[in-house]
Amino acid sequence: MSIPRVHYSHLIGFLEALEDLGGKVDAAKIADELSLELDDLLPVIEVAELLGFLKVESGDILLTEEGLKFLSDGIRGRKKYLGERLLKLDLFKKLIEFINKKEDKAITKEELLNFLAEEIHEIDSEVASKWIIEWGRHGLLLRYSSEENKIELYD
Amino acid sequence: MIRLFIAFLISIAFSITYGIIAAKKARAEKILIPILDILQSVPILGFFPAAVFFFVDLFGVSWFGIEFAAIFLIFTSMVWNLTFAVYEQVSSIPKDIEEACESFGVKGWTKIRRLYIPASIPKLVYNGIMSWSGGWYFLVAAEIISLGSKTYILPGIGSFLANATYMGDFGNTFLGLGALLVTILFIDIFVWRPLEAYANRFKYDYVSAIEPSKEVAFPLSRLTSFLVRHPRPLILSGKIVKIFSDLFSTVSNFFAKVYSKLIENIIVTKIFSYSVILVLFSAFMYGLTLLILEQGHLFIESFKLLFIENETAQLVFSMPSAIILSMARLFIAYLIAVAWTLPVAIKISKSPRLFSSLMPIFQTFAAIPAVAFFPFIFVLLMGLPYGQELASILLILTGMQWYLLFNLIGGAKSIPSDIEEVAKTFSVKGKVYWKRFLLPSIYPSLVTGSITGWGGGWNALIVSEYIMFGGKVYSVLGIGALLDIAAYELGNVALLLLCVFAMIVVIFIINRLVWRRLYRIIMERYRIEY
Amino acid sequence: MSTKTQLLTPILDVKNVSKEFNFRGRKVPILKDVSFSVHENEFLSIVGPSGCGKSTLLRIIMGLVPPDKGEVIYKGEKVQSVNPHMSMVFQSFALLPWLNVLENVELGLEAQGIPKKQRQDKALKIIQEVGLEGFEDAYPKELSGGMKQRVGLARALVTDPEILLMDEPFSSLDPLTAEGLREEILRLWSDRFTLPEIVIMVTHNVEEAVYLSDRVIVLSHRPGTIVAEFNIDLMRPRDKRSQRLYELVDRITSLIA
């Protein structure tokens, strides 16, 4: 999986719950605590792991130092930190490069869709584009205006 | 009136079937919706010749054939807009409700009865009211069917009115109008009000109304409460009026219950729909074959005439300019219509008092066929320069404005209650309220109102550009007039069909280029999702 | 730690409020004789079974709906119409679908006639504080539930209200998102800067009420009357798993059942 496909709010909610339970907990237990099915939580856990915020070891979920740091940051701090972690992902790296190469440092939605179709051979690039834009916004990496059909870098 | 009723029932059955199929089956949708589009654009009066040939052939020149033709015409005036309503409603049922149905194993007829029909009811009722208004309008046209030298007249209020107009007989015109008015009011009280109260149950409103919606309120209730509160002499009369209004309310509520039982009775709806569809379909196939076989040669004859005779050839060449002129008239009428309906609709939607007192008046006026206005408009405008142009524009206006008005009122009233609360919470008033709340929520209905309004406009062309009054004929250059000339004066089938065809092409192009685009853009941004 | 100095005059006084509705010609009482006061620096929750009129009570406090009997006094004056010093966050988010996040947040200021540049600056500031940075151009349909509610919150805060009212703010959110947002609200409450001094929240979730508030008022079944008031004497930051918290939740829940 190269794009996180869960909502940012789920990631935060999960990490907060993990911290609450002491930072180390059995997978089944945390599912129980949150009254959710473990199956439902797997995507969130995957994403959190991908971003380096937690580790999974023999059925236990451990909050990493990065995870702890992330949680203790203020609202803006978290976003900046998230942005850094996202940039370590291949797909985001490539996307930022792609946009940088353009003269006006912006691409249209269609160009994004094409890019995704080629890069990740995505069956449904429309859905993928939505997730990329959402995480890009959260990490203060991307700006998107549907009115002007413009996706550009944050700064 | 019975004709209207029959046509209406058939329309409902048809629209439910067609609409649901179109909404649910993606492949069918691709064919069905464009067809519906085209059908809706065809001016109803363009169906005339086809309908007449068809039914007259089927049943011979007998009472039966003509009656059917008339009913069919009225049906075509009502059905497209109802079908679209069902289609829209069924396709916008929130996904989670659909999923819930699936998980409970609700399929087939139960699903139709429990999900699709209830989902469509509010819009069906609302559009039904509009369709009836349209239906009354076409009654006149439908009851007098002329083709070439032959004229078929059916007994009915429509032909009565048209005759009176033609004779320039004001007295009879008034009489006819009066009778029409009474009938409409009657139907309003016994049919529409209860149905509306019934339909209210089916609305998706996110915040369940803090104050539950009121039951059917007889329009005079304000008057009665006023009277009852006043000192002695008036109390008695107040009491009498109150008794009447209570009586009416009870009757209305009773009917509301009756209708709900009827509609929700599965056996009734099942039998009804199946039989109607079956009959329609077989009749259609039969008639089509007959038509082609028997009338083919007539068509070829008249086609030859087109290019041989000078007169008719000239008419053919005047078509392009005719179309442009007609479009210009439509546009002017449209601007006038928007100019008055927009502010009025907004005013009315804000005040329940205005709403309950003015709506019946508007509905009544909407039902009066433009033909009935002819005499008055004539007397007024004939003396002025360009009098005839003005007259036809005004008449076109009457065909357009009600669609706009009712759609706009519907739109203005449907701002979700939680968004209304937001406006109150942040004390949003005046210009900001208009800019941020009112107008944006009205845009979708402005677009649908305009689309249907123009549809009505095209139809009105046919009666507004060519007028028979006091034994004489007045016409302006326009595609509607051309059509009428072809039908009434020349009896030339080919020319007639050519005109109809030209109209269809123009309407279709406008549809695709303008309305489709506009609709998509507006719905993208302004539709309120639940 | 909530040492409320009862000697201070309350900012908000709800006095003997009653309300009934007309339903099919019958009068249905919704609220009966509700009285309580709210002082500054207080996070108050109102809980009760569904249908007990708590949302209506909130609207009466706001001035959106008039009470049939009784009155609401704000800073010594009777509330006659919508109180501009109060703001509300809605259960259904109630964002205008045709405006983007920035425009939605600015709404209250626009209604006050504040010029574009000023209200934009103010709105952007709040947007940052509430965690919406990066989403200024987004339209509501591009947002997840949690983000939508943040917009609702930002919109309510941008007008600098003295009292923030929240009508079941987390009920339309999934549990994980709700968790996160609750923590956020707590953080904002403790920095004493973003949220106003008084927050009144209506909820049916007793745990949430106890976790967040200084005081919890319990309403009865319709017609709603005050059954009990609880001072939540837990020190902040609170432990969601503390014994005392569970006890309080149990006691309150038993009153509602």
Q: What form of chain C results from the Cα inertia axes?
A: globular
This entry's quaternary arrangement is heterotrimer
Q: Which CATH architecture of the domain at 1-85 and 197-257 in chain C would you pick?
A: 3-Layer(aba) Sandwich
Biggest chain pair interface: A-C, 32 and 27 residues
For this structure, what is the CATH homologous superfamily of the domain at 1-85 and 197-257 in chain C? P-loop containing nucleotide triphosphate hydrolases
| Mean pLDDT rating of chain B | 66
The stretches of 5 or more residues of chain C where confidence is low (pLDDT under 50) are none
CATH architecture of the largest domain in chain B: Orthogonal Bundle
Please work out how many helical segments of chain B DSSP would assign: 20
What is the CATH class of the domain at 1-85 and 197-257 in chain C? Alpha Beta
Tell me the name of the CATH homologous superfamily of the largest domain in chain B. MetI-like
How many strands, what sense, and barrel or not for the largest sheet of chain B?
A: 2 strands, antiparallel
Q: How big is the Rg of chain B? A: 24 Å
Total individual domains of chain B: 3
Show unreliable segments of chain B. 146-150, 204-235
Figure out the total of helices of chain C: 7
Terminus-to-terminus distance of chain C: 28 Å
Query: Order of helices and strands of chain C, N to C?
Result: EEEHEEEHHHEHEHEEH
Mean of the pLDDT scores of chain C?
91
How far the N terminus sits from the C terminus of chain B, by CA atoms, comes to 39 Å
Written description of the protein model:
The complex is a heterotrimer of chains A (155), B (530) and C (257). The longest helix of chain A is centred in the last third of the chain and has 14 residues, at 125-138. In chain A, helix 7 (109-120) crosses helix 8. With 155 residues, chain A is of the alpha+beta class. The model of chain A has no long low-confidence stretch (mean pLDDT 89). Chain A folds into two domains: 8-71, Arc Repressor Mutant, subunit A; 74-153. Chain A has helices spanning 8-20, 27-33, 38-50, 65-72, 75-87, 90-101, 109-120, 125-138, and strands spanning 24-26, 54-57, 60-63, 106-107, 142-145, 150-153. Chain A is built from eight helices and six strands; from the N terminus they run αβααββαααβααββ. In chain B, 82% of the residues lie in helices and 3% in strands. Chain B contains 20 helices and four strands. Chain B has a two-stranded antiparallel sheet. With 257 residues, chain C is of the alpha/beta class. Chain C has a domain at 1-85 and 197-257: 3-Layer(aba) Sandwich (Rossmann fold). Chain C has helices at 54-62, 101-111, 116-129, 145-157, 175-190, 206-212, 243-256; strands at residues 12-23, 26-38, 42-47, 69-74, 77-78, 86-89, 163-167, 198-203, 215-219, 226-231. In chain C, the strands form two sheets. A six-stranded mixed sheet of chain C has the order 6-7-8-3-9-10, sandwiched between helices. Chain C has a four-stranded antiparallel sheet with strand order 2-1-4-5, covered by helices on one side. In chain C, a hairpin with a 6-residue loop joins strand 9 and strand 10. The longest helix of chain C has 16 residues, at 175-190. The interface between A and C is medium-sized, with 32 and 27 residues.
